[in-house]
Amino acid sequence: MAFPVHRPRRLRSSPAVRSLVRETDLTVDRLIYPLFVVPGRDVVEPVPSMPGVEHRSVDRAVERAREVFALGIRAVLLFGLPRAKDERGSEAAAPDGAVQQAVRAIKDALPDLLVITDVCLCAYTSHGHCGILTADGRIDNDATLEQLAQVALSHARAGADWVAPSDMMDGRVGAIRRALDEDGFQETAILSYAVKYASAFYGPFREAAHSAPAFGDRRTHQMDPANVREALREVALDLEEGADLVMVKPALAYLDVIRAVRDRFPVPVVAYNVSGEYSLVKAAARQGWVDEQAVVLEALTAMRRAGADAIITYHAPEVARWLG
């Protein structure tokens, strides 16, 4: 029977009722906060296209980590910028690189904070691509794997809890897993950017990471936004190679992909609420066109509802305060 016997509004009648029957939760301990770490000391430089996000030297990154940990955020994702770039992205694996120093300093100050490191070469190469180039300007996939494995290993040696390869080279998860295991880091987990699309939503990040390609684009290794079955194949391959968790990036335009991955694979799924998604909301809120808090909470709840176990988001400190 339908109306008037069934009245669904009965279960929406008050905040207490709505809270009791709510199907999806959004809590601070599901959030991962990205940090951009740079060489130097006492550096805090705002990223113009990402209001509220800064480049921070190691000392000031530790300060920020303390702040977000006090808000209840239990994980950070570190991106690094080098002192100098070269064709191979050599500094990405340097023991004294900004990320490696930051890992050591943050784990020393906050041993209970989960420290995740991005593993890629684009911010470290003079050409801005995610791998080592051949003479004719193509990425040499197989030659890149050893370099990525060394980067991940340098992060693990510094104390990273998880490493997160974002390059989308074929076989990189297996190469990293072998390198970690052979060096005694069997407990270091791999969060794979298994499903990373060639998206228009990355623009502000490329400014923040100084990682825009000097020529061409990344469509030969990042995925076509039109594809879902390919995403499932990428996840299956990365899990076979040893990934412990998988990521879908971006999030908002790919909620169907998050759901497809969640339904198919019994592993934790992470969504990346990327820079363009963040900056669009910030710009609209500054114009008074949207209620920032309401929009952000609705968007992040949608990611959870789609199946994300955790969400990487630049909004994390604000969300922590809003959820109080």
List its salient traits.
324 residues, alpha/beta, TIM Barrel, 10 strands, 16% strand, globular
In N-to-C order, the SSE pattern is HEEEHEHEHEHEHHEHEHHEH
Could you say what the CATH architecture is?
Alpha-Beta Barrel
How would you write the strand order of the largest sheet?
1-4-5-6-7-8-9-10
Mean pLDDT level: 94
Low-pLDDT sequence parts: none
Count of structural domains = 1
Overall SS class:
alpha/beta
Q: State Rg.
A: 20 Å
Under CATH at level 1, the class stands as Alpha Beta
The biggest beta sheet is recorded as:
8 strands, parallel, barrel
**Principal-axis shape:** globular
Strand content: 15-25%
Helix content: 25-40%
Protein name: Delta-aminolevulinic acid dehydratase
EC number: 4.2.1.24
Catalytic activity: 2 5-aminolevulinate = porphobilinogen + 2 H2O + H(+)
Pathway: Porphyrin-containing compound metabolism; protoporphyrin-IX biosynthesis; coproporphyrinogen-III from 5-aminolevulinate: step 1/4
Descriptive notes:
Pfam families: ALAD (PF00490). It catalyses: 2 5-aminolevulinate = porphobilinogen + 2 H2O + H(+). The structure is a single chain. This protein has one domain (25-323): Aldolase class I (TIM Barrel), CATH 3.20.20.70. It has eleven helices and ten strands. The model has no long low-confidence stretch (mean pLDDT 94). The chain has helices at residues 15-21, 58-70, 98-109, 141-158, 172-182, 203-209, 229-241, 255-264, 275-286, 292-306, 316-323, and strands at residues 31-38, 44-46, 54-57, 75-80, 114-119, 162-165, 189-196, 245-249, 269-273, 310-313. The radius of gyration is 20 Å and the shape is globular. The chain has 324 residues and is α/β, with parallel strands linked by helices. α3 (98-109) packs parallel to α4 (141-158), α4 (141-158) crosses α5 and α8 packs parallel to α10. 46% of the residues are buried. The protein starts with 14 loop residues before the first helix and ends with a helix. It has an eight-stranded parallel beta barrel with strand order 1-4-5-6-7-8-9-10, surrounded by eight helices. β5, α4 and β6 (162-165) form a beta-alpha-beta unit.
